[in-house]
Amino acid sequence: MSDQDIRWKQRFQNYNEAIRLLRSAIEGRAIDSLNDLEQEGAIQRFEYTYELALNTLRDYMQENGVVLKESNPRAVIKEAFALGIIEDGQIFINMMLARNAMAHCYDHAKFVEILGKIQADFLPALVKLHAFWAVK
Fold first, then answer.
1. 123 is in which domain, residue-wise?
2. pTM of the predicted model, to two decimals?
3. Nearest by Cα to 99 from 44, 21, 17
4. What is the pLDDT of residues 37-80, one digit of tens each?
5. Closest among 94, 64, 92, 65 to 76, alpha carbons compared
6. 42 contacts: CB under 8 Å, gap ≥ 6
7. Domain total for the chain?
């Protein structure tokens, strides 16, 4: 099977671009220096980067013979942590909770708080996951 036929590698290519875009939105920038549109764009970039991370994790584990009893985000994160693919399972659980909270968030203070978590905690964890796959 060629690399192009392996689903997780196809998803990883998309994840690679998503990480690049998320980094360009928030890395080295103060959250309060971003205008509302930039903040919303950074949140959206986080959301699709997180979704790609989960889908790539699921596909990678299945490609490597892992049988997932459940394919919900929490189960995927738990299994990826157990296998040592991700170092800090709680960070990924926190990402899931933040992602869910943002679906109907109208509180600007909460919005800015989550942006701070994306910058300080979530992006570094997503970059580490990217590094794991980059050598596969």
1. 3-134
2. 0.92
3. 44
4. 999 999 999 999 999 999 999 999 999 999 999 989 999 999 99
5. 92
6. 22, 25, 26, 34, 115, 118
7. 1
